[in-house]
Amino acid sequence: MFVLQAQGLTKIYGSRGQVATRAVDNLSLEVERGEFLGIMGPSGSGKTTLLNLLATIDQPTAGTVIIEGRNTATLRNDELALFRRRRLGFIFQDYNLLDSLTIRENIALPLVLDRRPPAAIRARVEEVARQLGLTGILDKYPYEVSGGQQQRTAAARAIVHEPAIVLADEPTGNLDSRSARDLMEVLTLLNQNGATIVMVTHDPFAASFCRRILFIRDGRIYSELRRGESRPAFFQRILDALALIGGETDESVAVGGA
Amino acid sequence: MSLWQLAARNLWRSRRRYLAYVASAATAVMIYFLHSALIYHPDVQGGVPDSAAAFVARGLKAANVVIAVFSFGSLLVANAAFVHSRVKEFGLLSLMGLSRTQLLTLILVEGLLIGGVALAGGLAAGLLFLRLFFLAISALFPLQEPIPVYAGPRVWGHTILVFGAIFLVVSVASLRAVVMKNPVQLLRARRQPKAYPTFSRWQAALGLTLCLGGYAWAAVPRPMVVIVGVVPVTVMVTVGTYLLMRAGLVAALAWLRRRERIFYRPGPFLTVSHLAYKIQENYRALGTVAVTLAVILTAMGTGLSTYVVFVQAAVDNTPMAIQLVLPSESDAAAAAARVEAVLEKHGVAGLTYRKLTTRTGKLGENAVTLAPYSLYATIERPRGETLPPVKPGEAILIHPYIPPGGTRPEGPKAAELTVGEERIPLQVWDDMGGRLLNPLPADYTLVLDDSTFAALVERTPAAERLHLALWTGPGWKGRAMEQALKELGPYFFRTYFTGSGPLPFSAKLDAYLGAASALGTVLFIGLFISLVFFAAAFSQIYFRLFTEIEDDRRYFQRLGQLGMSQKELKRLALGQAAVIFSVPFVVGVVHSTFAMQALSTLMMRSVLHYGWMVAAAYLVLYGVAFAGTAQLYWRSLRPGLVLRGA
Ligand SMILES: Nc1ncnc2c1ncn2[C@@H]1O[C@H](COP(=O)(O)OP(=O)(O)OP(=O)(O)O)[C@@H](O)[C@H]1O
Ligand SMILES: [Mg+2]
What's the predicted TM-score (pTM) here? Predict the structure, then answer.
């Protein structure tokens, strides 16, 4: 069964006389329950926009998003909010941490919104913080910690409530290779426990943890790769595919391909 | 695009932010205009110098000076804050090629445009309320005839000149924020993520100590202590308020934050953390507003208490609806007939006529007017109980003032009454239940048993007798009585007043109206000034709220993306705004409560409830203003929240 379906999704930015951008152009995709899907593509190809549409925090110009069998266009506002809160974890490209909350409180936010008991919240936050190496900075504020730590905080917040679907927008963009590996292992574990993961990335190494990768260009699906063999071999095929697709990904390969 | 267009467009874009500022400036203009209309009114300028209207006009003149000075100060602060909040925008403009001169002109033009709008709005509102204002003046004060509505060129000229100058100076002064800086410095003013406010325990403790110390001082039940404390307590509490608004609030919120059971729920979690985060930039405004509100509430509470207490005292002091004091028996008879005729002509009912022929004497130090027990027993008095009948050799001494503590009778004490050459030993009870008669030169009243009294008066030579005609009863009030008094008072003064000796004519209603109009004037003027202060205070928090709206929008947007529904966001946003607005109000009410407690000590009776009444009235006003602001705030916030369908 498909946990996430997009049919004919289109998002056009810029109206009123300006040149319109088709950030996502008549795109359809299906994600199975328990899948670990990667999305790659050049900068500006519409990845973030697509993820936002899937997360229902943006409204498509045309097309439908179906989550767990329900068309999101027919859901009420508060039903959508509840869905985002309970079932969804989102790692934002720009982290989206709240400046007024400590790292601990930022991570705890989804649990608090879900009215979990304080003791359970504390235990769970500390567990996730340990997995992502955040234990030492829990009582600092976002502006007091590094970009990578902020990114890991965003990741911790996205998985703390063990959501059914995790949407991750470049979760390793600011991490060194060790932290990146740690995060990918956490996501993999989550995936093995049943969560569906959709991850946008420029980083072939991170992408090699996925089971399937969609390549996007100009808002459309360009090609698809499935992982069958070992991860190193998959990593090579990703590099080949990226070379083929061209665009700005070349430099990100140089940066992130370590 | 010309600078004027650019300026107008800038203002229009942030019109909601400027709204409260313009509204409060316009309120000041309006009230200044209305006051001027009375001050320069031809009837007042050329009219009777000591008429009620002239009296009010003098007060309004002083009020106008206060309003002008206060407006100048608060507009100066507010305008500087506006320019400061837009420094980054100005930096961008200068990077885009606006020269320094152009930039300064732009800021100046914006300031003048705002000033112009406020001035025009204030004058328009003034014109709108002009008729109502004159109606109120005529209704509140006993004037011979209503003052006609007036707003001559001097009124306009004066208002425009004064506020034009204020707006000009304020706009020029606001250039300071920009004039000495280059574009890079301007851009650097861009907001970084704010540092979370750290707080010092020491400051919180000091703030608390200062406030509590001030409260304790104000609550000491000794008038001398209170009087000495007025200035130091005001300073202590003001400084304490600012300290508490920062360190105290941060400490309180930090404490809440450690209480997991309270804190780990959606509302408290987000509200407490967000308020703590915002305190650094808001505590000054909160402190100022709290102190201003405390001043307003205390001033109005004092005005109201004074009004009620003194009007009551005037009424208590004049128990007789009408009291005539006449030189001879025949005069008294004729006068009584005349009064009865005039009362009947005007249709006054509910008064009983009593005749009293008496004399004065001395009881120890006190000059007393004698009265028979039968009169004492049948006349209603302000307070206290009528004492039981006196036998020969006994008497009741009625004191002219009611002591604040109570009206308990005391006695008997031995005393000696001197009338003419006679000395009469008496056992005297004290009665502190208020006057029996309207004020007389012999101000105490000594009540004797009827036969002793009659015998004493009988032995008095005709020249020493006093002839009183008295009217008592519930009919002392009302329109008809007022008309009758207008006819009677001047006649009796003309006919019988000799320049010394007892007043030939006195009436309760006259005493009441005299006190009410003099104190009412003070209250009326105070009310108008307080409205200007109130508007300025409110606009301060309003401005803080709208200055941070971009940050707030980003904040709520993120929460929306994390799964809070529109409804929850609205509740959260309005709840946070409500907390920000209510903190200074609550602090202001607490401050003013202690001030009213001190006033109670000075007035020797509790006036706390007048303080509550004033606070309740301002709460309604504040609540209405907040409700409007909250709607506007949410309407400004909502479009940016990228949610479904947005
Ligand atoms: N709010 C917006 N308004 C107008 N255009 C936008 C907006 N957001 C994105 N775009 C445009 O839509 C296109 C896709 O943007 P998107 O952010 O989805 O790219 P992306 O694939 O995530 O890029 P990157 O890898 O750099 O994050 C871009 O051309 C971008 O300029
Ligand atoms: Mg992106």
Answer: 0.82
